[in-house]
Amino acid sequence: MNRPEYLLDIPAEEYHAATKENKYTTSHRLNLFRRCPALYHKHITGEIVEGDTAAFLMGRAVHVLTIEGEARFAEDYLVADGPTNPKTGKPYGRETRAFKEWADAQPRPVIGTEDAALMKKFADAVHAHRAAADILSAGFAEATVRAVWDGEPVQARLDWVDPERGILADLKTCQDVDRFPFDIRDFGYVTQLAFYKRVLELAGFEGKSLRAYLIAVEKKEPYRVAVVELYAATLEDGNYAPPGAKYGAGNELMIHELQECRAADVWPTRYEEVLRI
Description:
Layout: H1 12-20, H2 27-35, H3 37-44, H4 54-68, H5 70-76, E1 78-79, E2 84-85, E3 90-91, H6 97-104, E4 110-111, H7 113-128, H8 130-135, E5 140-149, E6 152-162, E7 167-174, H9 180-186, H10 189-203, E8 211-218, E9 225-230, H11 232-240, H12 251-264
Parallel strand pairs: 1-4, 7-8
Antiparallel strand pairs: 2-3, 5-6, 6-7, 8-9
Helix pairs in contact: 2-3, 2-12, 4-5, 4-7, 10-11
């Protein structure tokens, strides 16, 4: 499969650096603005710095192992439990100074053996799911797409995309797949996938109508996997719905509001008025 020119192959560090330097608006940043412009402004000015927590590290590692495979995972991460405490004969805890100093000296981020084994179960469960395996059978992983949306430079990093089949997919972990429909609403997954779809179109995607999927894997036994396809009308709402819609105001409206806030340098909390319930 030939890789289209609009699917950029750049390191994750380069992508995230461009976001931190405020060169592009991403779906994550736009969802933050949708929730609270004042909070968004604190992030882009550096008053609030997003930390690289253990949860974020594990989330990225799960994506690499599941989407890009074991060979890439071995390139990007070191699976080890660290140095042994001579007093106990067991590895130092991850929160100890000894472990942190050792981990900082390693060339790659460190994943514990138990965590790595758990991630392998997630990945195996996803690839054992017929629909998920079919989605991931052909395409490109971790592709970056950049475009300009109504004057706003935007970028997206796609977990999985197959232009030939018209497939766009994003991998999620969750506590309970039975409640995943609530996660879709609470975490802005509709507007996220709708954003990806529109950026792809603006960047040059042509052909079949894109089908967008969420692949959710449960973080506990039996590691159930659910594949959710978003209706075309749902994605349309994600980009163009008015305020008060089920999944929030659409991305295009938010981009326009963001540009207005930036021009006026006014960043509301969205709770300036009296609530009536």
